[in-house]
Amino acid sequence: MITELKKKTKYLIVLLLVIQISCSSSEENQGAIWVGPADFMHVTKDKMEMTYSVDVVGQKMYLNSFYEVIKKGTETVIFKIKVTDLEFGIREDGISFCRVWGAVDDSGIESYLLAQECSGAKGNN
To answer: Does residue 117 form part of some domain?
Structure first.
């Protein structure tokens, strides 16, 4: 009887693990989409400099892609960035944000775009 109970418990655990694995999303966020304002933090060996009110065409960025960061309301390209990492969070006031990290121009130091009202995006575009 105890052996039979152990077998049933073992089968139940395996079944629950299979269900959990099959229901979980295996695809992580591959991009970020935002509707709020965005700023750009340019990081160099000597300083960190925030450029306020920037934009990226379409207000979305995906991993391993190149983007031009422009001054909002203009066509002036401020930086070119290759996206390497995404970071998502919620501010204390409940607004979602994301940091889109990447290498700027030829710099080996990563900078980031900080966007408000941001969410993750699956796939590539």
So the answer is: yes
